[in-house]
Amino acid sequence: MTQRLEVEAALRAAAPHALVDTLHNLLTTVHRATAVRLFLTDYGGTVLRACEPSGHGGESLAVSDSPEGRALGSQEPREQQVPRGEAIDHHLPVTVRGDRIGVLTVRLPGERSTPEVLDELRYVADLLGREILVAERDTDVYQRARRASRLTLAAEMQWQLLPARAYTDARFALGAQLEPAYAVHGDNFDWTSDADELTLSVTNGMGEGIEASLLTNLAVNALRNARRAGVGLADQAALADQALYDHYRGAAHVSTLLLRIHLATGRVEAVDAGSPQMWRMRGKAIERVELDAQMPLGMFEESHYAPQGFTVAPGDRLIFVSDGVYETLSPPGERYAERALARAIHATSLLPAAMVPHALLRDVADYRDAESLDDALVLCLDWFGDGHC
Fold this sequence. Notes:
With 389 residues, the chain is an alpha+beta fold. The protein is built from 11 helices and 17 strands. Helix content is 33%, strand content 29%. The radius of gyration is 22 Å and the shape is globular.
């Protein structure tokens, strides 16, 4: 316990940019580590980028084909024997409340690679993840390191607006992804939870580039402002609608799907204000959840919104997709939502919520026979219910 307190104190006292160097010095002293490296997941979720002391990304490793990537995917430590020696590399997932930040790799002598030491390293990796989230307020080191290429300005604005890409609670798990990751335009997701409720939104903004990002920024912040004022879901939509109309006078609007879920009962309030779709997998049955379509936010002055109700059951998976997903056409011209979307939801049924969006978006890209997608968003919600352990 004393060692853990010393590690925690040292990381908290470290300069924001120097967390890895501080950890290297600690683990060298305490466990005779000969190398300590941090790999961060990139914005596209396809590679792990080495976080170097310079603050710039170094080596890139494929998530799908590396021991580090397998540790990230399984969320379990992986061991790798170092060639020509007895040292062992320990790859430990760095994850905070379900958000898969990256992997910490620690090289130890073989005799130091005991279950007790591995347990300590798990604790260190967990602590490091939380400290990175705090440090990112004060340094760009970790933001720069995870970029496999330069973000467009529109994408920069969108990523800074987002919550984490994944979140896990005792009663639910969330995962979401935007594509193309380095040039996203108007799509967005948002969520927040408290003791009683989970509120989430999926937004499909019109337009491209900076204008689309500005429109979405206004919409999301208007929704947050109304939500934090404590008003109901319909009033949140109405106030955001008013803010957008006051600024754009109907020349631009935002399609949004809003949900508020009562955590104790699974009872859902939903406002469907536009194009994002919601699909449900219950057991082996997959179907689109049809809601009464209401006006997109900002299209008309003083639109009124009425929430609809339904209930999620333990074991339900909800999939939210923007039109960049369900409207995608195959080379012969068939819409993705006609048959392929249900097949893909079924094919990813065993994946955790954090991994589903990336898998679905890759399937959409394959469906249209392209390396990347137009603006597209997938959000996955797994509902465990109040009795989940």
